[in-house]
Amino acid sequence: MRFSVGLAGYHIRAWVMQSLVKSKLSLQVQEQVISQSEAENRIGETNLVRPSGKVIWLHAPDLRTANDFSELITQLRGANADISFILTTEKSEPQIGAVLAQEGVFHQFAVEDNYRFARKFLAHWAPDAGVWLSDSIYPLCLSAVESCAVPCIYVNATVSRKRRNKYLWFPNFIGAYLARFDRILASSDSSAIRLRRLRAPRKRLEVLGGFRAGATALGCNEADRTRLASHLASRPVWFAAHVDRKELAKLGKTQQRVSRGAQNLLMLLHLSHGIPAESAKRRLEALSLNVCLQSECPYPRLEHDVFIADVEQGLGVLYRVAPVSFIGGSMVPEGGNDPFEAAALGSAILHGPHFSNFQNSYDRLLDAGAARQVENSESLSVALLDLISPDRAALMAHAAWEVSTAGAEANDRVFELITTYLEQKDPANAPA
């Protein structure tokens, strides 16, 4: 364990301030700034019961960033269904987010950076390993992690200039903090160089791509895809997935407008769970569209404007035959759906303004020019007319695929490390 005068002083200060921290939290509860449960979480207490089996601790600054854990959670639960996760976040915010919808994920707010509070948290959850996805510096919390022999991985590792300057008078402070991590995974060479200058342990430092949520391509029956593609022939096609009831009229009007400039245009339609296909068909027919249900007609005919996929064929087939996909639940305040389903299968992405459930994923796609936001039926029509051109759609689709696969190396490395930690802790693997 590295020694730092600054860290020792920081520890003493935190010990002296314990009572003041508790008083401040109590006052915030009284003023309804935070909830009672959050105040308890901040001092390491919780009403949640630790599940049996292995527990992995995941830490992020907020739930938006925490969504980058989604793929790792899926990988680990696929390897061992008995694994659970305790997710801690620093910011006070509503408990929403795609990561919380995953099975076996518990959430509570991060403890204040205090050794005693952190030990209380660790004693309750007894995590088998941890993954840290935050550039916030919690030296006392990590000291407790080290003393409890919990291997912890720092992903997307970096220390900003602002945070570094805060500890200029104590040159060993950040190095001593970084030494608490079992592995430090930098997302670039430049980040690794900065970390080495801050005295990060060289033997624990690795350079990988950024750790972030990616996508696993949805399965597809190749025979079904081939038959559907042959029936579509050379028709221009677009796909609307996870469509909400309130979006049907907007999409129907879009199909009307765009088909005037794109002859024989076909809209493939997948409805959000719980919406009757017959009801959707009637609403679209009221707009003078020729609609067929897959349950009644297995493949669309030339006279059909809309083909509603109401048979459990799998979204993978539909994404693969459509060069452009609109992700539903985003033109109404429902929070949107996962865009990486389309991105991983080479489809250009259009979506509405409501995507809070997958904010981080959409932001990454928008930044890369891999998705386009539309506000209403009119702007969707304009975007769709532009992307009917195969070369334009192909450029967006390729960018979407690159975003969806970025982070795979870092995710795989974290999965490998955690699997190794769990095997080492398994009594069955203990030396005789």
Automatic annotation (TrEMBL):
Involved in lipopolysaccharide (LPS) biosynthesis. Catalyzes the transfer of 3-deoxy-D-manno-octulosonate (Kdo) residue(s) from CMP-Kdo to lipid IV(A), the tetraacyldisaccharide-1,4'-bisphosphate precursor of lipid A. PANTHER family: 3-DEOXY-D-MANNO-OCTULOSONIC ACID TRANSFERASE, MITOCHONDRIAL-RELATED, 3-DEOXY-MANNO-OCTULOSONATE CYTIDYLYLTRANSFERASE. Residues 41-211 form the 3-deoxy-D-manno-octulosonic-acid transferase N-terminal domain. The gene is kdtA_3. This is 3-deoxy-D-manno-octulosonic acid transferase. Pfam families: Glycos_transf_N (PF04413). Belongs to the glycosyltransferase group 1 family. It catalyses: lipid IVA (E. coli) + CMP-3-deoxy-beta-D-manno-octulosonate = alpha-Kdo-(2->6)-lipid IVA (E. coli) + CMP + H(+). It is found in: Cell membrane. It comes from Amylibacter marinus. The keyword Membrane applies. It is an enzyme of class 2 (transferase). Pathway: Bacterial outer membrane biogenesis; LPS core biosynthesis. Keywords: Cell membrane, Lipopolysaccharide biosynthesis, Membrane, Transferase. GO terms for molecular function: transferase activity. Its EC number is 2.4.99.12.
